[in-house]
Design a protein that fits this description.
Rossmann fold, 15% strand, binds guanosine-5'-triphosphate, riboflavin biosynthesis, GTP_cyclohydro_II, GTP binding, RibA, GTP-binding
């Protein structure tokens, strides 16, 4: 598993690509940068294989000679398509165990699927975008939670705060997928229930092609309540996603 950090010219945030499997590499990371030394390359993560005390080169050829191994990106690509999840930051659900949403469960489940070579032979990538609270930020999201406690749903609460119901965009995700070599005609499988994501991530010129949409069914629904997040709030949240955000999720699944 590799973690790539992307800076960008749209916002001041560091967005992440969490990459599973040896077939996916970042073009911008591997590219030569003027004036850099081999130590610079290894320090910023532009190397192949593993680091070890005394290693002096980031290069594939030297590694091949030294270790008699095939470089990761010299292997043939598997026939299956890589699995991708575009995930938006949720501090409350992922870090402080809020029972109001299924975000933490979705992040864990995406990683589990991508890390299992029988379920995802071509590996995959989680594009982790720093769009907390559907893009309104953590402070505003906490206000939205208070409005939800006063009887509004997650959609209405954003509107009452004079925010769009969903203020996110996915241009950075498209650019990151292209940098990871996941753009183009071959296509990806996208793990989501959100119809806006499927359309938006493909980009204006269909730079990324979604060949298959893979549903994210809540674990509690799949297991009759034996696993996954269970609460009155999360059920209400999921119903609102289906009714108002038109999420492609069958309540009976
Ligand atoms: N404003 C607001 N944001 C929320 C609330 N609950 C969760 N979120 C945010 O909603 C976003 C959830 O995003 P994703 O997990 O990418 O998914 P999604 O749009 O629901 O679609 P899927 O791909 O089907 O999961 C995150 O940014 C969360 O922080 C809420 O009640 N109010």
């Amino acid at each position: 598993m590799w973690l790539h950090v992307y800076s960008n010219s749209v916002d001041a945030k560091e967005h992440l690509a969490i990459v599973f499997g040896a077939h996916t590499r970042s073009r911008s990371l591997d590219a030569e940068r003027p004036g850099e030394t081999e130590l610079d390359r290894m320090t910023r993560g532009a190397y192949v294989g593993r680091l070890y005390p005394g290693r002096t080169s980031s290069r594939v050829d030297q590694l091949k000679r030294a270790e008699h191994t095939e470089p990761a990106h010299g292997r043939p690509e598997p026939a299956a398509l890589p699995l991708v999840r575009i995930h938006s930051e949720c501090y409350t659900g992922e870090t402080v165990w809020s029972a109001r949403c299924d975000c933490g469960e979705q992040l864990d489940e995406a990683a589990r699927l991508m890390a299992d070579p029988t379920l995802s032979p071509a590996g995959g990538a989680i594009i982790y975008l720093r769009q907390e609270g559907r893009g309104i930020g953590l402070g505003e999201k906490l206000k939205a939670y208070n409005l939800q406690d006063l009887g509004n749903d997650t959609y209405e609460a954003n509107i009452l705060l004079r925010h769009p119901a969903d203020a996110r965009s996915y241009g950075l995700a498209t650019a990151m997928l292209m940098d990871l070599g996941l753009g183009g005609e071959r296509g990806i499988r996208l793990l989501t229930n959100n119809p806006d994501k499927v359309h938006a991530v493909e980009g204006p010129g269909r730079e990324v092609v979604v060949r298959e949409r893979v549903a994210m069914v809540p674990l509690a629904w799949k297991t009759g309540g034996a696993q996954g997040i269970k609460s009155e709030e999360v059920e209400k949240y999921l119903s609102t996603k289906i009714e108002k955000f038109k999420h492609m999720l069958d309540q009976k699944s």
